[in-house]
Amino acid sequence: MKTSDFYYDLPKELIAQTPVEPRDSSRMLVLNRADGTVKHRHFYDIIDYLNEGDLIVANDSRVLPARIYGVKNGTGARVEFLLLRQISGNRWETLCKPGRKAREGACFSFGDGILTATVAEVRDDGNRVVDFDCDENFFAALDKIGKMPLPPYITEELKDQERYQTVYSHELGSAAAPTAGLHFTEELMDRIKAKGVKIAYVTLHVGLGTFRPVKVDDVTKHKMHSEHYEIPEETARLINETKKNGGRIISIGTTSCRTLESVATQYGEIKPCEGFTDIFIYPGYKFKVLDGLVTNFHLPESTLIMLVSAFAGYDNVMNAYKTAVEERYRFFSFGDACFIY
Questions:
Q1: Which parts of the chain have pLDDT scores under 70?
Q2: Which of 181, 74, 83 is nearest to 132 (CA)?
Q3: What's the pTM?
Q4: Contact 296, 338 (CB under 8 A)
């Protein structure tokens, strides 16, 4: 299967620049994977497609305000750092722009000295290992001066940073939001629970590799980035209990999906655990856990549209995307939803 098989033509004006209000008023394309039929609803209608005894599994990772702007000590040259991954303590792997300003040993100041940084290492891929220092808690300092690391296709400034967080976000550590969950409101979640549908959480810290393009023609030659995940004991128990009782497992987003399928693939079951996953799901993959998927509309030729095609069927998904473009759905992180069952 070729990467170009997953291309579709998307008018630029359909890339959502701002989130809708309220969150659950976004549109929702409903795709029946058994027969490929499509229906057009709103996200608050998802409750009509959930049954008593079902289990929703969502990613509770919280996005770091990981983009910081500062100056180089001595020259005053302006720089931008993007925190990618915590290595240990206040040592982080980062992207630095412009890179020529961030050579090994270079020192920087952010937020009028609230945060300082020294480049400890320049890696082969161009990323920097940086040691940060501050008088207060590092994450508290980041909250004061950091900006949300919005995807490159969003060019408008986000007025309320919480709109790039899910209402249930809890575990700090992502460089990008698990965006399928952005459609939920607390009120909608209460209504879902009242119907007898349980909600459980996994944590997968989303890396910027999620936006990395597939650069090989042969899909099978692509190497996925690695991300840290955790499945708590209560979540594992609820998943196994739901399966035993004949309920469905509905994954909120591709990150929750990859967490569950990674663990089932590695251990042959869902159990409490944590680790790193680089699972790459594309057509031909046999799902072991999922019965339903809530997701947004993904970039052409991306690993995410490949995952969705594996779950719902290639022809079904490409037809659904063609329909979504014709119906003027909003695409990508702040865009509309797709519910597949």
A1: none
A2: 83
A3: 0.91
A4: yes
